[in-house]
């Protein structure tokens, strides 16, 4: 017990000291929209920091064709990033735009005081509230609206991050980014088009239709991907607004060199996945050593591939084969012993199969093959998955060229393509199917879901196969 009491007083950055830090001069805070963060505080003295945050209720796009009425701090989800240092006296102006429908307020987890500021900041549309607080504890903190029903205000996007840097600032890094996870609940199912209202019951049940980084599906993919160069150090300020779900934050192909666990002083090193509670945050640092696209996910993995919790960090630069070789070779693996020396062809594997005798049989066999091989990516109704797998249903790309489709199933496809106006830039591996099966599966695809009705025969497949 004695040890404990001795420690409290000794703790560096203890709140008791921070309260005594004098402030000199006034300064208007730089606020940034995600994924950007304001300039580091560096060695600047504690100041009276004026933060002007405007609340905007505005419609935006959750994913292709799906609209949502977001409630925002500063016009974005998550809200504007606020960067302070310990000892700052923050004068907070919370402005509720006159066109908004509802009153709101703000609870900043960096505040020591009742409601984290909520009680003093409750503001009606067309009004502005001012309150002030001193930043006592360094760390990365969540802020959010706390107006009843609190869950609903958070679910609509009312959250963001405020960073309190220690005296002298955090160590400098080459790149800093702002990423925040949130779960969304809509009346319609995932992907259902139109303006989707918030669904209170799904939110209560924590059955999210969307789990996303930075407010929408694809906010950090493709052209919106985060970027870095080989050899650079990266710091991610990652928050979780919730309202309901805990994030198992992971970057595929990277190891976090250092994590400020829960956004506090405790640093854990060499971390694969860090848990970010709803209403919590973490500072994650790593050096990027090899080029490539590194995928940010919530490792509760269906959220990543089916609900949107997927982002990208694109790293450019020289490869380092010592660290990562890439595929070196594809060896033949024959566990049955040395008898057979050549790779069996796909035709041999399925040699026992009986060819379809009629269009109906082709459709039946084709559907079977589809449900075994294609469905995982292109989905049961051929609808695909936004930003990941292009649709086959009513696909202009598919319907434009039968021989090209045969070629794709035979040899796979990589590089940018545009399907029904949406860009995809991913990889489909070649599918291990016989010519018969390819004919069947493509006939099934072409004669389903509003496609052109083209018929594909084994001969057509063989012709494409023999061209190369
Ligand atoms: Cu609110």
TrEMBL record:
EC number, UniProt record: 1.7.2.1
Quaternary structure, from the entry: Homotrimer.
Catalysed reactions listed for this entry: nitric oxide + Fe(III)-[cytochrome c] + H2O = Fe(II)-[cytochrome c] + nitrite + 2 H(+)
PROSITE patterns the record matches: CYTC
Protein name, as recorded: Copper-containing nitrite reductase
Gene Ontology MF: a single term: nitrite reductase (NO-forming) activity
Pfam family name, one: Cu-oxidase_3
Sequence similarity: Belongs to the multicopper oxidase family.
UniProt cross-references to SUPFAM superfamilies, sorted A to Z: Cupredoxins, Cytochrome c
Cofactor(s) required, per the database record: Cu(+); Cu(2+)
Domain of life: Bacteria
Keywords, ordered alphabetically: Copper, Heme, Iron, Metal-binding, Oxidoreductase, Repeat
Keyword Zinc among UniProt keywords: no
Domain Cytochrome c stretches: 361-449
Broad EC category: oxidoreductase
Entries under PANTHER family matching the protein: ALCOHOL DEHYDROGENASE CYTOCHROME C SUBUNIT, BLL4482 PROTEIN-RELATED
């Amino acid at each position: 017990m004695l040890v404990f009491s001795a420690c409290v007083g000794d703790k560096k950055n203890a709140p008791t000291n921070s309260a005594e830090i004098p402030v000199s001069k006034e300064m208007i805070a730089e606020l940034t929209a995600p994924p950007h963060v304001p300039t580091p505080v560096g060695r600047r003295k504690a100041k009276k920091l004026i933060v002007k945050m405007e609340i905007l209720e505005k419609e935006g796009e959750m994913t292709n064709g799906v609209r949502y009425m977001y409630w925002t701090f500063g016009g974005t989800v998550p809200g504007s990033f606020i960067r302070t240092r310990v000892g700052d006296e923050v004068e907070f102006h919370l402005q509720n735009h006159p066109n908004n429908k509802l009153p709101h307020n703000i609870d900043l987890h960096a505040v020591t005081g009742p409601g984290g500021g909520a009680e003093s900041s409750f503001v009606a549309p067309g009004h502005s509230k001012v309150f002030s607080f001193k930043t006592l504890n360094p760390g990365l903190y969540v802020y959010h609206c706390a107006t009843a029903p609190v869950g609903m205000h958070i679910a609509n996007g009312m959250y963001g991050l405020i960073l309190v840097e220690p005296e002298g600032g955090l160590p400098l890094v080459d790149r800093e980014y702002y990423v925040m996870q949130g779960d969304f609940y809509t009346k319609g199912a995932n992907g259902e088009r139109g303006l989707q209202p918030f669904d209170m019951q799904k939110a209560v049940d924590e059955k999210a239709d969307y789990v996303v980084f930075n407010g929408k599906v694809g906010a950090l993919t493709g052209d919106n991907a985060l970027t870095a160069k080989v050899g650079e150090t990266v710091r991610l300020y990652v928050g979780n607004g919730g309202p309901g779900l805990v994030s198992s934050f992971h970057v595929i192909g990277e190891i976090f060199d250092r994590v400020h666990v829960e956004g506090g002083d405790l640093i854990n090193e060499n971390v694969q996945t860090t848990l970010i509670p709803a209403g919590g945050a973490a500072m994650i640092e790593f050096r990027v050593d090899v080029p490539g696209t590194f995928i940010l996910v919530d490792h509760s993995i269906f959220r990543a591939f089916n609900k949107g919790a997927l982002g990208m960090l694109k790293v450019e630069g020289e490869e380092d084969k010592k660290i990562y070789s890439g595929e070196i070779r594809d060896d033949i693996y024959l566990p049955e012993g040395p008898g057979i020396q050549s790779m069996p062809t796909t035709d041999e594997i399925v040699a026992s199969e009986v060819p379809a005798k009629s269009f109906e049989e082709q459709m039946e066999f084709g559907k079977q093959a589809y449900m075994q091989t294609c469905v995982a990516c292109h989905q049961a109704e051929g609808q695909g998955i936004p930003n990941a797998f292009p649709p086959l249903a009513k696909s202009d790309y598919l319907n434009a060229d039968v021989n090209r489709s045969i070629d794709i199933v035979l040899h796979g496809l990589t590089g940018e393509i545009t399907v029904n106006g949406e860009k995809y830039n991913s990889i489909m591996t070649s599918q291990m199917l016989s010519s018969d099966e390819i004919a069947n599966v493509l006939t099934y695809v072409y004669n389903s879901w509003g496609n052109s009705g083209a018929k594909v025969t084994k001969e057509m497949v063989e012709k494409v196969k023999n061209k190369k």
